Amino acid sequence: MKIRHLRTAGLLLCVMALAGPPRGAGQEKPVPYAPGEKLTYEVVWSVFPAGEVTATLRRVNGKPGDPFEVITTARSQGFVSLLYSVQNEFHSLFDPATDCSRSITKKINEGRRHKETRIVFDSGRKLAILDERDLTHPHDPPKHAENAAPSCVEDVVTAFYFLRRQDLQVGHSVQLPVNDGAKTYNVTVDVQAREPIQTPLGNREALRVEPKVFESLFKRKGRMLIWFSDDPQHLPLRIKFMIAVGSLTGTLRSVSEDTGAASAGSRAN
Length: 269
Prior knowledge:
Blueprint: H1 3-15, E1 37-45, E2 48-59, E3 68-76, H2 78-83, E4 87-94, E5 101-110, E6 113-122, E7 127-134, E8 143-148, H3 158-162, E9 173-179, E10 184-199, E11 202-211, E12 223-229, E13 236-243, E14 246-257, H4 259-263
Antiparallel strand pairs: 1-2, 1-14, 2-3, 3-4, 4-5, 5-6, 6-7, 7-8, 9-10, 10-11, 11-12, 12-13, 13-14
């Protein structure tokens, strides 16, 4: 198994629990999520239990109008941990009125790879400002880069929250700009089918979508599919990645309310 494929799997573990905010103030549909929402996923790599992913949404400082923050954690478990340990945490801030990402901080611990990355989106100057440290070489100077970006852009977390706010219709597509610190990609998301699926939450009708993120954002060959519940919540019931080392599938196990997250101030940004 190639290490680069395992690294890709580690990143995919961290985006398993993601699903989406509002773009533009003109939309009048009820918001399908609220601060305190916590999504927990069980992750399987082919047939092996691979780990757990959680995504918790909260409002920074707990006051109306303050930014939203999504805290996503990914932890490998069991057999997969023996091959490639993953202990990742992402903190993403976005504007709840415009859906524009403000920043994302990524703490990556995958095998022997340990790094911390922070990307700030400066809408006024239309820049994505990246600062990254390799924690395995603490005396090396940090990497710094400033790249052009739209005034409103999604990061790898808010891009998924964006989809929950959309009017997903079979046969239609959604497009959105996504930036991970370098080039901005205009990602197309095809709404492919409406179909029933089985989950720990019961049998649900779902809308299957396919974001075209491989060989661009992930720079690997593969496919990504997401099943959103066909109801006002648009819960991301299942997320599946098909990559060279097999399939990685995250299935929603529970939806709960984290009361501390609903009111706590930001500790990471």
